[in-house]
Design brief:
With about 80 residues, this protein is mainly alpha-helical. About 80% of the residues lie in helices and about 0% in strands. The chain has five helices and no strands. α1 crosses α4 and α2 packs across α3.
């Protein structure tokens, strides 16, 4: 999904907040690079602070798990 950056930023924000997706996963879904997703999050902060706060909350919760998926990956080897 390319086009208007503000519209894409809101769509990306809704997707990340709704699914708990990572930046990498969102980039794949929207067909853009990871750096574009990061720029969209900066745009989102200006255009929709409430949605931006939800996205940041999601990122904070993922950080609390602190690499659990990686730990489990190497635990099974």
């Amino acid at each position: 999904m390319k086009g208007d950056p503000e519209e894409r930023a809101i769509a990306v924000g809704r997707y990340i907040a709704g699914t708990g997706a990572t930046v990498r996963a969102a980039a794949v879904v929207f067909g853009v690079s990871k750096s574009t997703i990061w720029k969209d999050q900066a745009r989102l902060r200006r255009t929709s602070p409430g949605l931006w706060a939800e996205v940041q909350k999601n990122k904070a919760e993922r950080h609390l798990r602190g690499g659990e998926a990686t730990r489990l990956k190497y635990l099974h080897k």
